[in-house]
Amino acid sequence: MVFSRYNSSHSTAPSAPELPPESYHQPQQQQYQSYYGQPSSIYGQSGGFPAGTQPDVVRAFQMVDRDRSGFIDEHELQQALSSGYQRFNLRTIRLLMFLFKNPYDSLRIGPAEFASLWSCLGHWRAIFERFDRDRSGKIDSMELRDALYSLGYAVPPSVFQVLISKYDNGTGKAGLDFDSFVECGMIVKGLTDKFKEKDKEYRGSATLSYDSFLCMVIPFLVSYD
Amino acid sequence: MVFSRYNSSHSTAPSAPELPPESYHQPQQQQYQSYYGQPSSIYGQSGGFPAGTQPDVVRAFQMVDRDRSGFIDEHELQQALSSGYQRFNLRTIRLLMFLFKNPYDSLRIGPAEFASLWSCLGHWRAIFERFDRDRSGKIDSMELRDALYSLGYAVPPSVFQVLISKYDNGTGKAGLDFDSFVECGMIVKGLTDKFKEKDKEYRGSATLSYDSFLCMVIPFLVSYD
Lengths: 225, 225
Known about the structure:
The structure is a homodimer. Chain A contains nine helices and three strands. By secondary structure, the first copy, chain A, is mainly α. Chain A has a two-stranded antiparallel ribbon with strand order 1-2. The longest helix of chain A has 21 residues, at 111-131. Chains A and B meet through helix 7, helix 8, strand 3 and helix 9 of A and helix 7, helix 8, strand 3 and helix 9 of B. Chains A, B: This is Calcium-binding protein CML48. Chains A, B: InterPro entries: CML48/49/50 (IPR044590), EF-hand-dom_pair (IPR011992), EF_Hand_1_Ca_BS (IPR018247), EF_hand_dom (IPR002048).
């Protein structure tokens, strides 16, 4: 069943939290635009957060958004997530920024994207803890495979080999902490989402032009220091 | 002219140095295998280097291969390249390892691969210097585009935008040193080579399965610390 790998709506596998759809971003962006020139109103009412956002999430964001611009950059995101999760590697942070970014500003994220990212990490944290049975703070290769499956990604064995080889330091046995688990999972999620966009009929294959192939992949790759 | 982007043999653009073909690796591997159990003979004669390899290249390799195994790992490669080029970022080193690796051992490279990598870097260094007209040690976005073109990669504008955005820190203007230039160029080279393998008729597009897409891309992405 090829399409189950995609975590599609046809899949029987549990669903991973979805990235906020474009239609969700659009009204937020209009809201951001109305902020220009009205810095005093930025945190009025919901402060740009979806209704029902937990106060600690709002607090984590506002604490690092010192200039009250309504946006935070990668270093601020790293700091904001520390209050609820941990201090993630900047590489993981950049991946999260890329996957949850405001589509109109690739270097900063706003309240709606932050809330969505926070909730996604909560879900992933729960999955990680479920598979870290001995509470060592690490999961091994087989647990990683099962954890990704629980998130809705049935990574094929050939791909899984390639993926795990990047974390096992040549030993054949990888122990992933939560940071690496998030990095690894977000790569699978991000690439799967991108590929799915090109495979509208869920055939498990897609025809890509050279240009679109490079454009899909390059954002995941390089990053300035 | 779609196929010119690929630096194919049909292209009129100057050719980038090719990765050693499989047929080139095969006899080398047999040579490595004959080394097992005969450590004293490893550097006898050509020492596994192609005939005509410059003595300084052989010296750079042997200096870091302290256990005389005939293979060097990423840290040894970083050190070996310092003697002729510079101390590259470990991220760049890993990319070079991946692109020039011994196909039978993904974590180490041997003399033939090292010689090929050294010569490729020499060619890239010459291109970099040609475009760094003011000898500042950096090239800007437009020079990068021209330099990649000189290497045979006519990166389409949409891709180039994505690529450069990762190096310009949000300023719109990037200044790449030789390290970043190599990283950036090797990403383009590596992904182009992979895509070309799937586009045998040089149409500029290829049909990829979800599995093969992930397998093509993931090795470029994650790396253990």
